[in-house]
Amino acid sequence: xxxxxxxxxxxxxxxxxxxxxxxxxxxxxxxxxxxxxxxxxxxxxxxxxxxxxxxxxxxxxxxxxxxxxxxxxxxxxxxxxxxxxxxxxxxxxxxxxxxxxxxxxxxxxxxxxxxxxxxxxxxxxxxxxxxxxxxxxxxxxxxxxxxxxxxxxxxxxxxxxxxxxxxxxxxxxxxxxxxxxxxxxxxxxxxxxxxxxxxxxxxxxxxxxxxxxxxxxxxxxxxxxxxxxxxxxxxxxxxxxxxxxxxxxxxxxxxxxxxxxxxxxxxxxxxxxxxxxxxxxxxxxxxxxxxxxxxxxxxxxxxxxxxxxxxxxxxxxxxxxxxxxxxxxxxxxxxxxxxxxxxxxxxxxxxxxxxxxxxxxxxxxxxxxxxxxxxxxxxxxxxxxxxxxxxxxxxxxxxxxxxxxxxxxxxxxxxxxxxxxxxxxxxxxxxxxxx
Length: 435
Hints:
mainly alpha
């Protein structure tokens, strides 16, 4: 990758160097804050909101959306404290496991600390290992309190545990990952809807949502490879069949199959594609053609020519940093080496050009009229950091291929491939609470 781009200070650096600099800046900030900060959906943690506003689903949604969308930060006024979200910590752990930007020993130590933090955030009230958010939340579909685990938080925590296991070689991490799988099978049972079956978003939930169901499916497929637990493998095959059968002719998936879930948005489409790629890597070859069709739709319909990610397939605004981060990650992981690597770099260049504040921080959103300059941990910092770690890994693979080194860097592969365990002198000790 010999071509160069201009960095924030006006110096000319290679694309790989620009990614590396940006990644290190993000990690430094997150590490110093211990991954604590604001979240785009944390408004119901407010201590100074009239209780009558929170008594109905509509009232709760209005409070959440007002705080999320306001160009000025309302959290100090409303008494919303900073917090640590399990998803942010999970993405930090996955970033440290992938590494490529820190000395190996230091990455191992930070990975161990992140896993310990993740373990402390684990919820105890349900069978298996599970996680939720640090705030109550009201969506257009359902309400769930902070004490309730959800599939999204739990699956990202589970993926982080598997990443940490593959990096550190600690069998306790795989055991805890297996407990995550048991949680899904026991507490979020699949709803049979031939062909296949889908996982709900919450325990006992039956909402037919593609991204959450496929992410659980991908986790179980990956867990099956590592544990040879056939129950996990069978559930993964069934979950994959359900979503594959419901891919639209143009290659897209709606958010969900219910009549009130038919929109198509950017970052959830990215989740679906990444999950399909994980299934493919786990040996579920039937994911290959749906992934190809989905990537064609994603690249052709969800972005403008200058790299702008459209929020919905039929609507560009708001321009969203979470969508940008997921696009960089999706194109880096779940795509052929050549064309989609360039697409990842194109979206990254857009982020540097359009989504940075005066102090160099990435911002949350741009609308037609104003910018929301919040640098949320889960909505901006952590997903962008993980995305850039995947992009850096892909650039390293590309450099290896271009230099003609045999046996490394296969096109179409992923940075999520199992990593060798650290040498005993470098491996960090992880303390897991046996509950």
